Amino acid sequence: MKSPRKLTRSKTTKNLLVTGASSEMGNALIRQLLNNSGLKVKAMVHRSPVNIHGCEIRPGDLKKTDSLVQTFSGVDTVVHIAGLTKSTRESDYFEINVSGTKNLIEACLESGVKKIIYISSVAVSSEGGGYASSKLEAEHFIKKSGLKWVILRPAQVYGERAEDSINRLIHWIQRYIFVPVIGTGECKLSPVFIDDVVSAMTRAVINEEIENKTIVLAGPEELTYDEFVDRVAAHFGVKRFKLHIPAGLIELVSVLLSKVGINIFSPDQVPRLLFDKSYGISLAKEMLNYSPRYLEDGIKNKHSQ
User: Fold this and answer.
1) Is residue 261 part of a domain?
2) 271: in domain
3) pLDDT in tens, 174-187
């Protein structure tokens, strides 16, 4: 087995900009990056304000290339987190995740940015609905950009805000005796704690040797949906009953509810959940010294914060 690569830190100061800085992941990444004296960190903000001591704030809009050119002035590396994860309209995903990424690439080339670190998802597929298709297409443009690139694909990240899907499920299991399960419960998950993802992202930033690689950031094990429910329930010491609901029925209900303005979840979240994904983390272990914690340890940490 190969030993993990040591981090190669730049001898000169690197100017770094993070998009999606107002997200929990973006915020956590910036705070960790600021601990590195070799980095000057900037945050791109659109609507939501960001206030992090030591971080320069720059406005920017993925829909406007001209604004991005100014935003990226003097920047060496862009960590692109910003994106749309939920929508009732498939076209919205492509407007933000694809067209927005193309605008970002164009601005990077014009501004002299040398490298893009793109935060994608394990849910990349032409078969997983609008979000999955848009992330796959965005990855294609990143790879063809002519810039140095790294693509990171996090799995189901928990430990963020409670409204995120995997967190909502954890909270539901903790509180309610009946747990709805989409389909047969056999679809595979690989939950990963946010701190482990952010640490890997930080290593991808400061390790100059990593380029033109697609790296999965999943948990240390794969679980079926049913197994995930059972493990979380056991962690909290509670008995839970799983209610398996046909996937087609959930998709139909979500579409009907969205037409009257009730958006419990996006219709494409069902195919996004159910299609088979790649969770192999051997490359992350080799290149990023990646060692994600097990589910119970992550939940314990999440609830102690």
Assistant:
1) no
2) no
3) 999 999 999 999 99
